Amino acid sequence: MTAATITSGTKSRHLARNLGFVALPLVILLWALTDLSLGRTLVEWIPYLASGFMMNILISLLAMTFGTLIGAIFGILQLAPYRLVRYPVVAYVQIFRNAPHLVLIFATTYIFPFEIVVAGHYLPFPDWVKAVIGLAIPASAYVAEITRGAIQSIPTTQWEAAQGLGFSRLQALRYIILPQCVRRSLPPWMNLFASITMATALASLVGVHELLHAATDASTAVRRIDFTIIAYIVVMAAFFMLCYPISRLTRRLERRFSAA
């Protein structure tokens, strides 16, 4: 096989991927152009849909931030030598790693109050914050498993070398082991981020104003079958255009790390 053939095949694959990325926006644009009244209506509702999508992004970012912080700690504690510390953390991880996201969102919605009292003042506890908590819980469980697996994948010779240099176990973990775990954990962490981002659409079922909820509002207000269809295509396109680059970057990082 010649170099020209390989280059041509690579370009064809890149072209196919780029076409896949723009396919849904292209369908939306062409459909809107064939029916100008539909196109005008869609343009009028785009800012409302975009405001809902901003909520999806906010929920996913906050859920992954809290989930990563808690999960990294729990991942380390799963390897603790003390059973009283290790067993509760392992139970937490196994329970919430296998719990449906929708169940957790509903649970946090009804467990937490609608408002809290701080220094005699009543402060609202919005539903989107409850959705963040509901998604941060499974995210923390998955991150805990990712962290545990990354730590255990480090050769034991690294621990022994650190001990020979006079590092304590905690110092070895902080300065030697965890920096290496970051590179190994990044691809699965990004896959989890994409999964949590798509799960934010479930927040619409508890009344959170996000993209799917906004599309339903728009469909109810316009009451046109063709608009309803194109509105949900917009929802799918928005999530796809956000999550697809994450998956592509994840594959690239996996290839780079495996080569290294």
CATH architecture: Orthogonal Bundle
Number of domains: 1
Task: Output the number of helix runs.
Answer: 9
What is the succession of H and E elements? HHHHEEHHHHH
CATH class: Mainly Alpha
In the CATH hierarchy, what is the superfamily? Answer: MetI-like
**Per DSSP, what share of the residues sits in E-state strands of 2 or more residues?**
under 5%
Largest sheet: 2 strands, antiparallel
From the spread of the alpha carbons, the general shape counts as flat
Helical content (DSSP H or I, runs of 4+): over 70%
Low-confidence stretches: 3-9
Quantity of strands, as a count: 2
CATH topology: MetI-like fold
Distance between the termini: 26 Å
User: Structural class given helices, strands, pairing?
Assistant: mainly alpha
- What is the subunit arrangement here? single chain
Could you tell me the mean pLDDT? Answer: 86
As a whole number of angstroms, the C-alpha radius of gyration is: 23 Å
Spatially, the strands of the biggest sheet line up as: 1-2
Core attributes:
mainly alpha; MetI-like fold; two-stranded antiparallel ribbon; flat; 9 helices; 2 strands; 260 residues
Task: Characterise the protein shown here.
There is one protein chain. With 260 residues, the protein is mainly alpha-helical. The protein has a single domain, classed as MetI-like (MetI-like fold, Orthogonal Bundle). It contains nine helices and two strands, in the order H-H-H-H-E-E-H-H-H-H-H. It has helices at residues 3-34, 36-77, 83-97, 101-111, 127-153, 156-164, 169-199, 211-222, 225-259; strands at 115-118, 121-124. A two-stranded antiparallel ribbon has the order 1-2. A hairpin with a 2-residue loop joins strand 1 (115-118) and strand 2 (121-124). The radius of gyration is 23 Å and the shape is flat. It starts with a helix and ends with a helix.
